[in-house]
Amino acid sequence: MQRTWLTSEGVAAARLRGRGERVVTLPRLDRGSVSPRSVLAGVLAAVRERPSVVVTSGAGLAVPFCVASRLLGARLVHVETMARVTSGSTSGRLLARMADAVLVQWPDLARVYPRAEVCRPALLEDIGSPRPGGTGTFVTVGSHDQAFPRMLGAVRTAAQDGLLPQPVLVQRGVADQLDGPLTSVEFMPREAFEEAMESAAIVVSHGGAGAVASAIRAGKRPIIFARRRALGEHVDDHQLQLARKLDELGLAVLVVDRITPEDVAATRDVRGAPVQSGSPRVADRLRDVVADLLTLPRTFRVLRPTAR
C-alpha cells in the first residue's frame, strides 16, 4: 500500500520529503484564500491519485480532494484535530457527513459529531516529565500570517517589569522587529525552535496546537495567549477552546491581556499527564479503521444517513 501526504508547499512538505515520504502539494484554500483554481487543483489531484482511503483532519485545501475522491469511490476517515475541543471546524462538519468513520479527541465533540468515536487526545500521549530549571524565556507566535500585537505587547511589558527571566527570545512571525529587552527572530528552523523551548525556564506561546504540544512535550507548563475571533486575530476561537481545556487540566496557564507574577509562578507547577479514560489512543484506532476500510470495496454513495 502506497501512502501519500496532501499538503501545501512549505516546511512540513519539505520535512516529509526528507523522510522519504511521497507528497502531493496543493494551493492554499481557506476562508482568506478561496479561488476556483484551488478547488480545481484538489479535484484534479483526486482524479490523478484515485486513493482507496483518504484520512483527513479537515484542512481547507483537502476538502475538494476529499469530496472528489468520495465521488470516485474512495473511503473517507475524518479525524478532528486536538485543537477542536467543543466545536467542530466548518470543513469537519461537512466531511463528517460523507465519512465512513469520524474520530474526535475530546468528549464534548460527541455532541457535534453524533457518529464519532471519542479517542484519547494525542496531546496527552507524550507529555514530557517536568523539567525544572532552564534559562531565560522563549516566546513564539507561530507561523500565522497575522501579527499578534496583543501578545507581543504583554511580553514586552512583562520583560520590562522583570517578570520574565532574561534573556527573552521571541519568535515574532510577521511582526516588525521588536524593541525593549527582547531578542527576536522572524522564524526558526524546527530543530532550533525545539532546542529553545526545551532550554527555556519559561515558555510563552500563542494557542496553536503544534506550539503548545511542543512545550508540553518539553516538560513545560506554557503561558498561552489564545488568538481570538472577536479581536480579528483568527477566523474562529479554536485556540481559546484548547487553551481553556489545558488550563483546566493544569497543563498550561491561560492569560488574556497581561502576564502577572501569579502566572509566572504557576508555570513552575508542572503537572504530569492527567488520568486517562478507557478510550483508545487515536493513532491505534485510526490504524485499525484504515485497515478495515482497505478490505472493503469502493462505494459511490457520498452522503451518509444523518444520525437521529
TrEMBL record:
Membrane topology label: Single-pass membrane protein
Keyword Lipid metabolism: no
An example Gene Ontology biological process: dolichol-linked oligosaccharide biosynthetic process
Top-rank taxon, per record: Bacteria
Keyword list, A-Z: Endoplasmic reticulum, Membrane, Transmembrane, Transmembrane helix
Glycosyl transferase family 28 C-terminal domain location: 186-252
Subcellular localization(s) per the UniProt record: Endoplasmic reticulum membrane
Name recorded for this polypeptide: Glycosyl transferase family 28 C-terminal domain-containing protein
The organism of origin for this protein: Cellulomonas aerilata
